[in-house]
Structures are given as structure tokens and as C-alpha cells.
Amino acid sequence: MPSVTHDDAPLLADLMPWSVAPPRLGRGWPAAPDPGSLKARWDTLVKAEGPDREALFEPTRSRTLHTAVGRLPGRRGSGGTEKLVRASGPCPEPVRVLLAPYDEQWLIPDQRLIDAARPELWRVADERQVFVAEAPGATPPLLVTSLLPLLRPGRVRPLFRRPGGGEPNLAPGLLEHLGSRLGSTPTPLDVLAWITATARPDLTVPLTGDADAWERGLELGRRMLWLMRRDGERPKLPGGRRPYVRAPLPSRPVALRYDRDEEALFLDEGRISPVPPQAWDFEVGGERVLEQWFAARVAAPGPGTLAAIRPAAWPQTWTSELLELITVLALLAELRPLEKPKLPAPVTATDLGKAGVLPVPGAARRPASVLVDPEEGPEGQLALL
pLDDT grade, residue 3 (50/70/90)? Predict the structure, then answer.
């Protein structure tokens, strides 16, 4: 029987049945807030020899300089397949990823550097894909991104099981059943918008068969998706509320503080305002997003490590990203998930069970068989799947 809660709302795990554990890097240096540092780190690694290269790499039980792994699927030029002990040549072109909540950074897409890359996620990552990363207990409890998420510890649920937006990762028959209740069949992205707007901290998702309530939820969910994904028109606060740099930021800021009375964010003596209190107070997992974002850019790694290779001064691009992040958090804070004691015409887990939508077949919880292009295995061998 399908899983139920006190009000019989279905679980996200039943509505989007295929999930993958998030990728695990195993070492911090293959990711950074700027791509230039990653290329410099790679160059330093491949120029080193013997024990020096091994120490810089930071081996683990999953990855050493002698580990044989294939190329990341779905990405041409995503690293070589010879063992790292012999690696040379230019750095694989860094890709944008979601490394922490609302923190877009860069990653060297090379499976030799990543302890658990989750190839099944890379196979379906393209311009049509949308990833849902669980943040249970947070508000909102889901982070939705067009980038590959490396967030821990929640599961990652792609919206589509195949590249090109093929085969939605939804319980088989869910779209048709909702269509019979609503009068028109929703798209997979509609369902994701509803889930984003209504998901609860316990990761249950109340559904409705009332067309008016559904449209209200879609309006809220679409705006949340737009703010989280940030892959369309850039969000802006109304005039007079837009944050600006009021005092120049220092070349190497070390401290971040917020003045609630002035609604000002200070990076040492640099000043950004207005910054709404809701943006400063925005938390995920008990940590302020803005503080976490800043710390990732100014933390001082140990000397002699690859992670210590970073920009000599604060790049202008980081200031632009910070202003946009403040805007996104302020606008998201104004949107609260659609919380009502009881939705009209609820579609419960019991209803979905009677319609044959739940329980989902076992195959729906496993990845689809995807092989768009031949995949290169270790040492240039053709990968066998």
C-alpha cells in the first residue's frame, strides 16, 4: 500500500519516485566560486610529480592517483580516462553547479577527482533538466535548480528520467489522474511547480482536484521555480528596494556583518544597502545563506594545498552575484508555501491507490536505461553498460 500521513497526503518520494544520492566530492579543491582558480589548481597538480602530486591530490579510499574510472557521461571533454598519476594537458572546462543552498559555484567535471560522481545524474543533465534537492525541515523544504546539485544530505530527484525532457520522473498515471480531476492534463513542469509551492517540511505534498486552487498553487510555484533556477530574466526588487554598493568593497574582505537598523550589509568597510532583514535571516539547515556564501569565498585553506589557489582580490563578478543573491532571497522570503488547513477536493494517497497510481512499480524507482552516446571507460576503453 502507498505510504500515507495523518491527512493522507502522498509523499514526494511516491510522486517523484526516482532519486539519487547527491554527488560526493571527497576533496574540496575541484570546486570553487570562480573557474580561473580551478584551471590554476589543475595546472599545479599536473606539473607536480611523485609524492608532491599525491599530496596535492588528497587521496581517499575511493580515489587515488592510480584509480581507473571512465569519463563522466553526457559531457564531451569532461576529463581524460588515463590514471591521474600520468595525467597532463589542459584542465577540463569547469561547469556551473549548485554547491550549497543558493550558492552557484564551478566544478572540474572529471570523474577521477570525484569520490562519488553519480553518473546516472550526469547522463540526464541537460538544458531541459530540472533537479529537485531535498532540504527536509527547511522552508521551503525543496531546492530546485537547472544545475547539477552537490547538496548534502538530501536526495536528488530529476524531473526527467531521460535527456531532452523525456519520460517525466513522476508516478506512472499521475498526470492522467490529475487531468481527470482538474479538467485538463498538467505538464510535468506544472506538477513540479505545484510540488514546490506545497511541499511540507516532512516532504509530504498535498494535492487538489480543484482547478481554481490548482491555478493559485501553480502561480506561486512558478514564481518560486523562476527565483530558484535563475535561468531566465534576472530578478529585480522594486525601485528603492534594490541593493547597491554604497561604499566600495575592499580587495580582500575578511568579515561580514549586518546592521538591522540601517538594513546594510558590511564586508569590512564595504557597504551594500538596502538589504532587507528577510534576506539576511534566510536560513537553510540552521545556517544563514548569506553567511555561508561569504565564508565559501573568504575562508583561508591550509597553505600548500590546491584549495589555497584562489583569486588574489575580490572579483567584480562576486559582487554582482551577491547583489543577485540578496534579491533572490528577499523575493523568496515574501513567498510562503501554499499552506491551508485543508485544500478543496483533495487528491489523497488513498485516491491515488484506488486509481492504480500508487504504489509505483519498482522500475520507476530505478534509473532508465540511457545511452545516447558511447561512453569512454578507464584507459580509453569503451564502457560496457
Answer: very low
**Residue range 168-185, pLDDT digits in tens:** 999 999 999 999 999 999
Among left, alpha and beta (phi > 0; psi -120 to 50; other), residue 77 is left
Please return the burial class of 250, using the count of CB atoms within 10 Å of its CB with bins 0-12, 13-18 and 19+: middle
> Backbone dihedral region of 178: left (phi > 0), alpha (psi from -120 to 50 degrees) or beta?
alpha
State pLDDT tens for residues 200-245.
999 999 999 999 999 999 999 999 999 999 877 889 999 889 999 9
Give the pairing type, strands 148-149 and 264-267.
unpaired
Cell numbers linked to 83: 590514471
pLDDT above 60 (res 383): no
CA 322 – CA 355 distance, rounded (Å): 47
Helix H or strand E segment including 144: strand 142-145
Beta-bridge partners for 259: 264
Beta strands of 169-282 (E only): which ranges?
A: 207-208, 244-247, 256-259, 264-267, 270-273
CA nearest neighbour of 98 among 63, 146, 58, 137: 146
Give the DSSP H or E segment for 297: helix 289-298
C-alpha grid cell, residue 307: 584549495
Q: Which of 144, 233, 154 is nearest to 196 (CA)?
A: 144
CA-based nearest residue to 336, from 231, 216, 230: 216
pTM for the predicted model, two decimal places: 0.93
**In the numeric block, which cell numbers belong to residue 207?**
494535492
Find, among 224, 82, 213, 214, the residue nearest to 144 by Cα.
Answer: 224
pLDDT tens readout for residues 238-256:
988 999 999 999 999 999 9
| Closest among 159, 153, 202, 209 to 185, alpha carbons compared | 209
Handedness of CA 179, 184, 188, 190 (dihedral sign): negative
